[in-house]
Design brief:
The complex is a heterodimer of chains A (about 170) and B (about 220). Chain A is mainly α and about 170 residues long. Chain A has helices spanning about 5-10, 20-60, 65-90, 90-110, 110-130, 130-150, 150-165. Chain B is α+β, with helices and mostly antiparallel strands and about 220 residues long. Classes of the chains: A mainly alpha (about 170), B alpha+beta (about 220). Chains A and B meet through helix 2, helix 3 and helix 4 of A and helix 1 and helix 5 of B.
Amino acid sequence: MNTNLETIFNEAEKRYLTSDELGAVGQYVDSLPERLGLYRLLRDQEVTLIQAVADQLEQDHRGVSVPLLEQCIKSGVLALRSCALTMLMMDDNHIHERMTWLKQSQQTYQSQEIDASFYRLLDKQLNASLNPQQMALLQPSLTVVYNTLGDRARSVEVSENLSVSSLF
Amino acid sequence: MIAVADLLLDGRVPSNYFATNVYVTSDLELGLLENRRGSRLLAIPDHFIRALYAGLDQETGQATRLVLMNCGRWWGKNFYARFCEELSEYYEKPLADMAMGDFIQSLQQCWVTHGWGLFELDQSYQHRGFLLIKTWHSPFASHAPKLERPVCFLDCGILSAFFSQLAGRELGCVQISCESMGSDCNRFLLGMPDRLQKANEGVDQKLGYEEILQQVCA
């Protein structure tokens, strides 16, 4: 459950909720039909969305082994499912917990480069398939994924390497 | 061409089976801890580990090392059976068919979730016939008596039994660095028992782990 809402409901044990707190609950409830709709869409269109990304990825990386490509796609599926659930629950903690496992998997399989390509393609595919309102709902969790596993993660690693090596 | 639908097992993608928040469930009223299959888990307080060392020392003296090592072996043997059963059921394939990466990652997460600290498999010495395992924050190291030698005998037993069964041949395990002696982590060297003789001698001579590794691989 959304940790912010959980805190609010815990507070309601001893007193009535304030207008601000009720506003936060109302905001979540009002946005729920849209969130449910987007969650269903992502669930039902998952294979189509990811297949388009996978086909392009395979074309762009002909030299990469099939098991590595498959691993990258499976991680991408997990990441998108986590984004969808995070969006539905409006709970950022959920995506952060999931990222630890996927980041570790990326390091185990040394798939930083191929993952970066995957998430670039996924971003294009999502932008082409979802409307701006749907993208806005999904964007916060997607940003976490891109920062952890995509191009932005790589640029952080490179800059860290540069700054460390520049010390010597 | 890769078909995405074929990568999903009945629509699901196996991931972090041992995720702490999913794997361990508790019932405060009954005081029970269970794993995600409903098997009971046992939480051991720090005092118990300290008392285990103190009691064994009083009862068995110098044989404590051997007793703990044998307990670890027994524990490791059962742990391996449960680990394989749970993981192969979750991944819907035998352990032998699992990707090495998924296996190692699951083992690392399993170690964390059971409160045994962090775990890393270093395969740099594999071509020499050895596996090096590093662990951090082991409760069995932090509560052990200071003996001026590595003290994680229980961990040694667990690891030797676990990897012996995985490799399908008898492997020995020697701890060559220990957090209880101020080392950055615990290092366990796994290999054929006769080839670990030099490592045992190095530990007895109080050599550092780097020297021991050099001697063993020379």
